[in-house]
């Protein structure tokens, strides 16, 4: 692809400048790799309040089991 060759072209209709700007913005945004927010580290204080091991599975008796010591 050369520098003068367009990335896309309008084949039907006459878009306004605002519509073309929106299209360019979407194409630019979608061409970037997705980068989510960095995970926030959990403090030792917050980890100490969480029970060790996996959470009780949903089902009969799960609500009662969630309050019992492990």
TrEMBL record:
Region (Disordered): 32-70
Transmembrane segments: none
Ranges of compositional bias, category Low complexity: 43-70
Single GO MF descriptor: acetyl-CoA carboxylase activity
InterPro entries the UniProt entry points to: ACC_epsilon
Pfam families given in the database record: ACC_epsilon
Record's protein name: Acyl-CoA carboxylase subunit epsilon
Species of origin: Micromonospora endolithica
